[in-house]
Each structure stands twice: as structure tokens, then as C-alpha cells.
């Protein structure tokens, strides 16, 4: 279990992490989500004692990281896959870690096997691809057979096979009863991996909830309708007190509506429907809606708008 209480980190005037209070529980995958710059890495660094909180507290199974006698046997982490001595082989990198942490040598071969790097164990890490580097970082996190695992953006830059592998690994680690805490800025990825979500924006806690509750509370459900008798349908829906949104392209949307009720209403009035489909806004949309206020770096779909905002006099094509 990881417990944060009022955890805060300031860099000068900038509040990177703002009074975060939540617990990461064992037996499930907890996704740690937030837009770029939300404070995820800073929070993880404080959990590992790499950054000192300005205020508040964070404990691992009731203790501060510095108080753990063999920390790698309590908590394993992948923060930066590139933090490896490039001149060392994968085997030697892990052996050094094992020897300096009182971990038996046999664990090196075991974790290399778990992450699928046995065949390249004697190759120098500097020749590794991004995916191989991520696997080596994960091997390091698993080395001490810890009950708690923490991964910062583990799927960044990986190919679909690598993403699939990491997703299954996390789920199996949680199924073994371990605490798995994984950060991402991709809601769609978390939707497939996490059981529980902690969402932050500009350092502040926005949500601490199960995945189904997050979907229910944050996403919009509606019914999409199209009909060749659109005007007639609009009248009928209006008479029935149903609020309709015009979505463009002749499509109508009814927020929170029941497809059965609308279908029966249309049938009673002899109205032909070409589409009647219940929709749920995607998790990505729910996440963007939740964090919209706290996104630090907005992209502009219209580059001209961005340039006008910055006053660079962009003229457009
Ligand atoms: N050492 C530092 N000095 C000054 N500001 C910092 C430092 N480290 C982080 N920050 C700032 O703190 C905020 C949070 O950064 P952090 O890297 O924790 O966010 P993040 O959620 O991990 O982002 P990303 O998804 O982009 O990795 C950012 O605005 C960042 O610029």
C-alpha cells in the first residue's frame, strides 16, 4: 500500500504537486493519469524519496522510503528506462543492482526470463531498442520480488506487441496480490489496464475512483438518431418533452435518452428511422473533459488561432 497525505511539491512559484491525498491499494492496477506536466513524475519521485516534499507525507506500507531496510524488496520502480549504464550488459546491470541490494544472484536470470531478454542478456544496453530498454527497466523493478510496483509511462514509444506484453504483465502482478501503480497520459491505454484511477491536473487530485464509476460519472451517454423524416421526428420528440441536440449531417442526439422509448415513439407515429444507436462517450473524451480546465499546454486545431494568440501574425495558407 502507498499512502499520500497532503503531499505537496513547489519549485519556486510553481506548485507541481498540490496537497495530494490518496492510497494505492494491493491486488489491483491503479492508473495514475493526468495531462503533460500534471505532476505524475514528481509524485512518483517523492514516493521513492528522490524528491523531498515541500509539505505532506508519503508512506510505503506505513514507512518512509528512507526507512526501508532493503527498499528493492518492498518497492520496484521504472521511472526512466534510459537510466542504465550503456556500457554494461543487461546481465551485468541487473547483477550490480542485485549485489548492491542483497538480492540473490539467481534472481537476475529469473527476471531476464520474465521480461524476455535472456537471449540478449550479454549484449551492451546502449545497443538496446526503446522496447528492450523498457523491458530491462522492468526487470530491474522486479528484481527484489517486491510487493509494490510503480511504472512511469511504461508503454511510451512501444510497439503494439510491447504494449500488450506490459499490459498483461501488470495485470498478472496485480492478480498475485501486488500493488501496481502506473502512470500514463493516455486514457485509452488505462481503460484496458487499470481497475482503479487516480486523475490529477496541475498537481491537484481530480478523481480517485474505480474505472466503472469513472466512466459513469464522467462520460456522456446519448442516443444517435437519423431519419429521412427528420422534421416530423423533431416535432414528435418535442411533443414528448424529449430534448434533442442537432449534431450536424442531419443526425440528432438525445442526451441520456433510451433507444427503446425513442424507437417506440417513432413507430407509433409511422416514422422511418435509419439509425437509432445508444452511444457512450469514450473514456478519452471523459478524461479530456475532466482535465480540460487544468491542461497546461493546449494544442490548437487551427494553427492560425495559436499564432494570433501568441501575436506572431501568422497569416495562414
Ligand atoms: N526540477 C524541476 N524544477 C522546476 N520545475 C519542475 C521540475 N520538475 C518538474 N517541474 C514542473 O512541475 C510540473 C510537473 O511536472 P511532472 O514532470 O511531474 O509532470 P508529469 O505529469 O509527469 O508530466 P509528463 O506527462 O509530461 O511527464 C511541470 O510543470 C514541470 O515543468
From TrEMBL:
It comes from the Bacteria. InterPro entries: AAA+_ATPase, ABC_transporter-like_ATP-bd, P-loop_NTPase. Keywords: ATP-binding, Nucleotide-binding, Transport. Residues 2-227 form the ABC transporter domain. GO terms for molecular function: ATP binding; ATP hydrolysis activity. Pfam families: ABC_tran. The keyword Transport applies. SUPFAM superfamilies: P-loop containing nucleoside triphosphate hydrolases (SSF52540). Belongs to the ABC transporter superfamily. This is ABC transporter ATP-binding protein. It comes from Streptomyces alanosinicus.
Amino acid at each position: 500500500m502507498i499512502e499520500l497525505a497532503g503531499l505537496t511539491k513547489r519549485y519556486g512559484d510553481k506548485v507541481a504537486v498540490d496537497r495530494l491525498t490518496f492510497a494505492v491499494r494491493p491486488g489491483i492496477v491503479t492508473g495514475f493519469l493526468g495531462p503533460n506536466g500534471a505532476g505524475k513524475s514528481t509524485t512518483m519521485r517523492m514516493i521513492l524519496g528522490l524528491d523531498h516534499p515541500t509539505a505532506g507525507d508519503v508512506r510505503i506500507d506505513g514507512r518512509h522510503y528512507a526507512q526501508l531496510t532493503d527498499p528493492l524488496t518492498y518497492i520496484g520502480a521504472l521511472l526512466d528506462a534510459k537510466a542504465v549504464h550503456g556500457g554494461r550488459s543487461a546481465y551485468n546491470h541487473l547483477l550490480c543492482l542485485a549485489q548492491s541490494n542483497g538480492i540473490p544472484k539467481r534472481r537476475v536470470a529469473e527476471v531476464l526470463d520474465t521480461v524476455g531478454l535472456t537471449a540478449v542478456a550479454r549484449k551492451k544496453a546502449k545497443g538496446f531498442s526503446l522496447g528492450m530498454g523498457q523491458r530491462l527497466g522492468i526487470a530491474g523493478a522486479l528484481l527484489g520480488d517486491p510487493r509494490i510496483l510503480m511504472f512511469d509511462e511504461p508503454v511510451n514509444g512501444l510497439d503494439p506487441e510491447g504494449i500488450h506484453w506490459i499490459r498483461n504483465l501488470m495485470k498478472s502482478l496485480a492478480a498475485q496480490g501486488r500493488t501496481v501503480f502506473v502512470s500514463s497520459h493516455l486514457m485509452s491505454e488505462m481503460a484496458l489496464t487499470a481497475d482503479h484511477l487516480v486523475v490529477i491536473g496541475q498537481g491537484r487530485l481530480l478523481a480517485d475512483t474505480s474505472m466503472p464509476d469513472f466512466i459513469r460519472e464522467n462520460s456522456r451517454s446519448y442516443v444517435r438518431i437519423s431519419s429521412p423524416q427528420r422534421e416530423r421526428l423533431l416535432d414528435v420528440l418535442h411533443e414528448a418533452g424529449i430534448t434533442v441536440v442537432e449534431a450536424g449531417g442531419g443526425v440528432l442526439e438525445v442526451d441520456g435518452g433510451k433507444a427503446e422509448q425513442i424507437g417506440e415513439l417513432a413507430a407509433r407515429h409511422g416514422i422511418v428511422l435509419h439509425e437509432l444507436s445508444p452511444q457512450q462517450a469514450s473514456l478519452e473524451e471523459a478524461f479530456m473533459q475532466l482535465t480540460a480546465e487544468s491542461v497546461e499546454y493546449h494544442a490548437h486545431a487551427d494553427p492560425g488561432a495559436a499564432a494570433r494568440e501568441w501575436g506572431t501574425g501568422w497569416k495562414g495558407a
